[in-house]
Amino acid sequence: MSARKRSALWNHFETEGSDSKKAKCSYCAQVLALPNGNVGNLGRHMKSKHPTIPLVPERQALPPSSSATSPPNTTPSVPALEQINLEPLRPRYNNPQPTIRDFAIKPLPPRRAEKIDNQLMMMIAKEFHPLRLVEEEEFAKFVALLNPSYSLPTRKTISESILPKQYEKLLQVTKNKLATDSAAVCLSTDGWTSINNESFVAVTAHYISHDAAEIKLETVLLGCIKYTERHTAENICELLKTFMNDWQIKNKVTAISSDNAANMIAAVRAGNWRHIACLAHSINRAVQTSLGHISSTHVKVKQVVEYFKRSSHAQTKLKEIQKQLNVPDLKLKQDVATRWNSTYDMLTRIVAIKDAVIATLALLRNDLSLSTDDWQIIEQAIPILKIFNDVTTEISAEKNVTLSKVSPLYKIMSNFVKGLLRSAPNTPRMPQIQSLLTTLDQQLDRRFAHLESNDMYAEATILDPRFKRRGFKHDRNYETALNVLKQRVGRISQDPETIPRSTTSQSQAEAPVHPAGNPSIWEEFDREVAGLRPENSIAAGIVEVDRYIQEPMLSRQGNPLTWWHQRKEVYPHLFRYMLKRLHLTATSVPCERIFSKAGYTLSERRSRLASKKLEQLLFIGANAHLLKCEK
C-alpha cells in the first residue's frame, strides 16, 4: 500500500481514474486532484464540505499516567516470575484494543443510496403502501437493522423528488418501448370514481413485441388521469386523441376496447376507430338479465348472507355447527350488484355449507330459512352459471391472446345452453331455471352471434393456430373471412419490406439485362413477365395462407405467439398481418384492474393523496416491469 493510502482520509474517498491522480468523495461525488500525490485537498474538502463527519474514528481514551496519578504501591512484593506471567493481562495502552466505534459503518455512497431510494419507491407504488410508511417508527427500525448506513428519505422527499423523477424516467422508457417495439396497438379504456368522488379515466395499450429471441404480448398503462369534463362522447373522443398524440401512436391504433356504455361506443365511432365491446361486460349483462327469473330466491339468499355478516353470534354458531357436522369451515360470501360472478360465488358457497346453514337458521332465525324449492333452484343454477364464470376468468387474462377466443367461447356457451334446452323433456328442472336458460340462449345470440362475421374477430380466430376453422360456429362465416384474409395478405406481399432479403436479391439477380443497342429476342416476353410480377406477389401471399391452414393445429394449451415466432421466416407476410390481429384485447379488464389498484392506493387512510401523485404512483406500479432491475 502506498504511503498516502495509509491516510485516514481514504476512508472517505475513492480513487478516480487509472492513474490514481484524482479522488472522488463518497458523500457528494466531487472529484478532487491529488497534486504530487498530496492528500491535502482531501482534508480541506472534508473540513469545508462535511465538517460534521469525523476524519478519524474515536478510540478509547488512554488512562492517566501511572507515575502521575497512581497511589503509592502498598502491596507486598511478588516474585518476578509472577509479574512476568501477569503481564499479558494488563492493558497495552500504547496499542489500545479497537472499540465498536472504530468499526462504525461508513455512510453509503450516493449512487448506492439512490438505488435503495428507487427500490423503496417501487415497493410503495407496486404494493400500495402509503407515502408515510417512511415515517412509521417500526419500519424505520426494520430498515436500520438491515442497513444502518442507509437514511430513510422523508415523505416530502419521496413526494417532491423521488416519485416525480422515477415517474419521468419510466415514462420515457415506456414511450421509447412502445414506439420501437409495436407494429400495431390496441387501446382499452374505462372510467372510475374514487373515494373522494373524483372521476378518473384510464387508458392502456396492448401490442406484440418481438425480436430474434422472443415474442410476447405487452400491456402498458398510458395514464390514469383525473377527468373533470363531462363524460360525453365528444369529450372522451378528444381525450383519446390526446393520448394518441402524446404517445405518437395515432397511426398504429387498430381498435379500442371498452364496455358497452353508449357514450364510450359513440366516442370510438366519432374518432373513426374500430370498437371492441368488452366480452366480460357483455357476459355480465347477459347473465344479469337472465338472473331475473330467479330473483326471488336470489333475494332470500342475500338476506341470509347479510344476517350472518351482521351478527357475530350467528357467525359463531354457524362455525360451531360446521365443526359438529364435520364440514369445511367456510364463510358465506356476499354478492356485488355490478358483478354477476359474485352472485355465482355467493350461491356456490351457501350450497357448500348447506346443512350447517339450515341447522343454524333453524336455531336462530327460522323465518330466514330457504324453502326446498329455493335450494333446488340454487343447485340447478350453479352448473349453468359455472360455464359463464369460467369463460369470464379465461378471457380476463392480461398476458394471453384473447380476441381469437371470443368466437370459440361463444360456440361453447351457445352449444351448452342449447343442449340443456333440448334435454328439457327428459330432465326434471324448476320452471324458473328453464326460463333462465331460454333467456340466456336469446342473450348469447343477440350479443355474440354477429361477431363471427366481424373481420377483426374472424381473422384473429383464423390466425390463432389453436382454432382456425374449428373456432367458428358457422362454416360460411369461416369461408368468407378466409377469402378476405387471403386478399389482404396478398396485398401485403407486394410490399418490399415484407419480402425476405434472399427473395429480393434473387429477384434482382433474375432480372434480365440487355446490352445497350442490342435488344434481346426475349425483350417483349420479359416485359410481359414483369407485368405479371405483382399478381405473382399476391399469389405468394395466398399460398402462404393456404399452407398455414393446412398446418397441424396447435394444442389448445400451446402459445400461439411462440408458434408464429418459430415460423416467421416461413410465413413472412402472414406473420406481419398476425401482429395486427392477435394483439387485440377482448376486454377492458386491464383498465378495471388499474382502478382496483387505485382503490387500494387511495384507501381511507390515504384519501388526501393528491390526484397527480396518484396518477404517478399508478403509472409506476403498472409499468415497473419495463425497467431492468438495478443491481
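The above is record 1. Record 2 follows with the same two-line structure.
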Amino acid sequence: MTTKFNAVSFLARWLFAAALVFGTYNPSDYCYVNWIFSEGTEFGPVPAAVGIALLICWIIFLRATMMSMGWLGIILGGALFACLIWLLVDIGWLSLDSSGAITWVVLLVLSLILATGMSWSHIRRRLTGQVDVDEVDD
C-alpha cells in the first residue's frame, strides 16, 4: 500500500466525492433523486441497487470524514468555504438570485469537504511530520 500523497491523490479523491455528491443530487435532471422521483419511474431492483450502492458510498465517505476531521473540523471547513462563497457574492461573481448556481456551489463545497476528509490524515502528516500508528513499520 502506497503512502505517497500528492495533488493527484487529492484530485482522485475529489473526483470520487464529486461523482457521489452530484450523482446523488444536482439541479439538472441527471441524478439519482430526479430519476427516482420522475414521472413513470417504477421502483424496482435496479433503482434499489443503485440507491444501496450510493448509501454505502455515502457511509464510507462520511465515516472517513468524521473520523479524520471530527465535528469541529467539518464545521470549520464549512465556515471557511461559506466565507469564500460570501466573498464571491460580495465581489459580484456569484448572484444570490440564482438558486441553481448557489445549489451547484454548495454541492461543490460538500464534495470538497468530503475529499478533504478522505485526505486529512495524509494532509496532517505532511503538515506536521507526524506518523500515523497504522503506518509504522515493525
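The chain is about 70% helix and 0% strand.
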